[in-house]
Design goal:
Blueprint: E1 3-8, H1 20-23, H2 28-41, E2 45-50, H3 54-64, E3 70-74, H4 83-92, E4 95-100, E5 122-125, H5 130-142
Parallel strand pairs: 1-2, 1-3, 3-4, 4-5
Helix pairs in contact: 3-4
Bound molecules: 1,3,4-trihydroxy-5-OXO-cyclohexanecarboxylic acid.
């Protein structure tokens, strides 16, 4: 059975309440529920995690090396700053898809730069909570022949 980690970075625990005009009204729990149902329908095991801490996100990626086939990851603001997360992704050997609710290329210029995208399989940005579903679909496609 394919096993995927759905990993959320800083401030995403506040989804639903946080700047809903940018990030939408759907809560993180609801996104996790929708993605879990989507995964289950495809016979995929999905585990979910969120942390506001860079180190905890690195720990989650390192732990995923022993059980997961891939990761759908919204790194939040660490996307734009974290060499440590980039190294963690590159060093893990895991297939990772970077996702963003908002279109990071249509906002402040500092959001257009991702330190992580070059070591990810790809990036999906701008489709609200559906970015996660598109990201999972893209990741599962990576495992097909
Ligand atoms: C985000 C985009 C980031 O720039 C921002 O810091 C976030 C959320 C998104 O999902 O659109 O926290 O990753």
């Amino acid at each position: 059975m394919t096993k995927i980690l759905l990993l959320h970075g800083p401030n995403l625990n506040l989804l639903g309440a946080r700047e809903p005009e940018i990030y939408g009204a759907v809560t993180l729990d609801e996104i996790n529920r929708r993605l879990t149902a989507f995964a289950e329908a495809r016979g995929v095991e999905l585990r979910t995690a969120q942390s506001n801490s860079e180190g905890a996100l690195i720990d989650a990626l390192q732990q995923a090396m022993v059980w997961a086939d891939g990761v759908v990851f919204n790194p939040g603001a660490y996307t734009h700053t974290s060499v440590a997360l980039r190294d963690a992704i590159a060093g893990s050997g895991l297939r990772v898809v970077e996702v963003h609710l908002s279109n990071v290329h249509a906002r402040e210029s500092f959001r257009a730069k991702s330190l992580l995208a070059p070591v990810c399989a790809g990036q999906i940005s701008g489709f609200g909570w559906r970015s996660y579903r598109l990201g999972l679909e893209a990741l599962l496609g990576e495992f097909e022949e």
